[in-house]
Amino acid sequence: MKALFFAIIILFSASPFSSSSVISDIDKSDIELSTRFDGTSLLVFGALTLENDSTSLLVEVVGPSTSIYIRKKVQVWGIWVNRKVAQFQDIPSFYQISISNPEHPVLMKIKNQKLKSLFYDFLETNSTPVDGNGVEQYYDELTRLKKKLGKLSTFEEQVDIIDKKLFSYKVNLPKKIHPGIYKIKMTLIDQQGIELSKSEQSVKVSKVGVQEFLSYNSKKNPVFYGLFSVIIALILGFSAAQLFRWLYR
Length: 249
Known about the structure:
- By secondary structure, the chain is of the alpha+beta class.
- It has helices at about 1-15, 105-120, 135-150, 210-220, 220-245, and strands at about 20-25, 30-35, 40-50, 55-60, 65-75, 80-90, 95-100, 125, 150-160, 160, 165-175, 180-190, 195-205.
- The protein has five helices and 13 strands.
- Helix 4 (about 210-220) packs across helix 5.
- The longest helix is centred in the C-terminal third of the chain and has 26 residues, at about 220-245.
- The radius of gyration is 24 Å and the shape is flat.
């Protein structure tokens, strides 16, 4: 916080002689995922100097990478099975982009370029779709589901700029998010979408408590995790049976 304060002083003192620039900070750098986690929000704020009134501020939130597999029912030897037909490899588990000027002339171009470079370009198909629009359908379905789950947002919120010197932006993270590093990128752009200045912050999201224990063992000790899950299921089943027996005795 102190570093941001001094950076703001330097930025303001140099603003008459400098072009567009931006510095930033966030109100929290760590988020814990516990069994009671029900979503959270974080505040991104900072200072900027604008080359002119046409300069806009982009804010992107990029979650840790994940892979999504698309399966389709196909008939194999007379039996219907779910076969993997495509996959999105190493795409952001969460992505949100906002701008200070919702009337920016190349807003749709920016949106299409960002989504293409982050999602569409990472689509891999195992075979050529019978329908020529198959690849497009996979991409459309992915974006639709991510928006429904609150994990994809494109220019639905506006970045607030105060007196052309300060900015603030609230990031809302949904209940179900992946652990890992979330990057918050601030970029000043001109009317053509050309980048003028950048700043970046990061937030670490990690599992704690029971979730951390289960997640660690499911990856590192699968045999123990399997046995532990069976034992827990037996205990819960036995407890439920005893409870019903006592209630209807």
